[in-house]
Design brief:
This protein is an alpha+beta fold. The protein has a single domain, classed as Sandwich (Jelly Rolls). It is built from five helices and eleven strands; from the N terminus they run E-E-H-E-H-H-E-H-E-E-E-E-E-E-E-H. The strands form two sheets. Strands 1, 2, 3, 4, 6, 7, 8, 9 and 10 form a nine-stranded antiparallel β-sheet that branches.
């Protein structure tokens, strides 16, 4: 399900497409982005709570915490019937940066990261089993779709967690939404 499409940031023209996990990891590593695939130690129920999810991924989470000095970890989930789904979605749709890594591991569901690096925009569709680590100060945005459905492990090096510095650019409006991307197979 994972997919990477690289676009020109000026006209949106597709430059390259990748579906193989190793190819995606290689292309993203070239811009400093970590992409991995993980498997749970046990099968998880759809309603698994935070403690159960973290226990199922204890080893890779611990490895990342030690490697990067992460101070906190949590599990966040959003379903299509959540009353504030539109508010949550809109929070991430504008280009921004963080002073910290943005690390997400998709336990279930999917989401689309847009990474704006140099003169390219990398659209990274992440799904169940995918880990993405966006380096600090990398311009990006995220779309969870109009009917979000995901469960993610998040890791933070700062106690504040997710803090965005918005760029003010309208670039996000010039690229397909997650629903368009998935529906049109861009």
């Amino acid at each position: 399900m994972s997919r990477l499409t690289i676009h020109d940031d000026r006209d949106g023209a597709v430059q390259e497409r990748f579906r193989d996990g190793a190819d995606i990891a290689r292309e993203l590593a070239a811009i400093g982005v970590r992409f991995e695939r993980w498997e749970a130690d046990v099968e998880l129920a759809p309603d698994a709570d935070q403690e159960t999810v973290l226990a199922a991924y204890r080893e890779p989470v611990q490895r990342l915490m030690e490697e990067y000095g992460f101070q906190s970890v949590d599990v966040v989930s959003l379903n299509p019937d959540h009353p504030e789904r539109e508010t949550f979605r809109n929070k991430f749709l504008s280009e921004h940066t963080h002073g910290d890594f943005e690390v997400r591991f998709f336990v279930a569901g999917s989401g689309l990261f847009y990474l704006h690096v140099d003169s390219k925009v990398y659209l990274v569709l992440c799904g169940e089993g995918d880990l993405i680590s966006v380096p600090a100060n990398t311009t990006h945005w995220f779309d969870m779709g109009a009917a979000p459905s995901f469960k993610c492990i998040r890791l933070f090096t700062t106690p504040e967690g997710w803090v965005a510095d918005f760029t003010g650019s309208d670039i996000a409006s010039r690229f397909p939404s997650m629903d368009e991307y998935c529906g049109n197979n861009v």
